[in-house]
Please model this.
Amino acid sequence: MQGPGVPSLDQLQVFLTVVETGSFAAAGRRLHRATSAISYAIANLESQLGVLLFDREQTRKPVLTEAGTAVLSEARTLSMSVDNLRAKVKGMIEGLEAEVALVVDVMLPTARLVDAMQAFESRFPTVPLRLHVEALGATRQLVDIGVARIGVCGPILTDVAGIEHINIGGVDLVPVAAPSHPLARLKRIAPGEARNHIQLVLTDRSTLTEGQDFGVIAVKSWRLADLGAKHALLLAGIGWGNMPEPMVRDDLKAGRLKRLKLPEWQAGIYTLNAIYRTDNPPGPAAAWMIERFLSQLK
Model:
């Protein structure tokens, strides 16, 4: 009896992309191929392996069969091994980068960013640095599409296939409002009171977190794509919102903003991660930049 055939790396990539994106059409868009080409590649892979990987009859979207789930685990392992092999070879033949493109989450404290960039300029004076500042999923998106070689992003959207992430600490988020705001004038904020006032919420420029809210309490919220604009509105007494503590530290000390003690607010750390694509690992200068962010924790 003839055993299963040998699938190509391209077929496995198509398979993994369909699983990650949730549909043949979405996989086609990510891989820049027609949906029919994606369907053809999956059909050929199923034919070679002798098993059905997706159930196409019970639902409109492809759902993994039992065999597909088993194949998925092995396909991910193989894909990671190939990425690691390419990364090692690339590291051996690659010299210093012509340029380093970095994207950072807007929540990254300015002092940490300035320290890293000053040290980078001193260590690699001949390497230009291209900096992008984004929020939420937009940071990972720029790494996904290759605009940025490395990134510093928040706690969401890092645990995905093809993305390596390294924890580099985090930042405290605190709810604040201007002293003139009704919430700031209360001696004690009752449970649910914050829901009755406009909350300023940082929104995502990308579609990676579409339909998701993070830390939203109020019934009415204003969405802003710029943290600086959110800061200005808070100082003006328009709404309340969560801000990275280093950014409002001086405002709290000077009395321009007041920290709110909200019964429903659970204090926490906004985790920061250095990320890069496993198939496009950082070169010497970009890797040094990641190490600099790590050294700031010591």
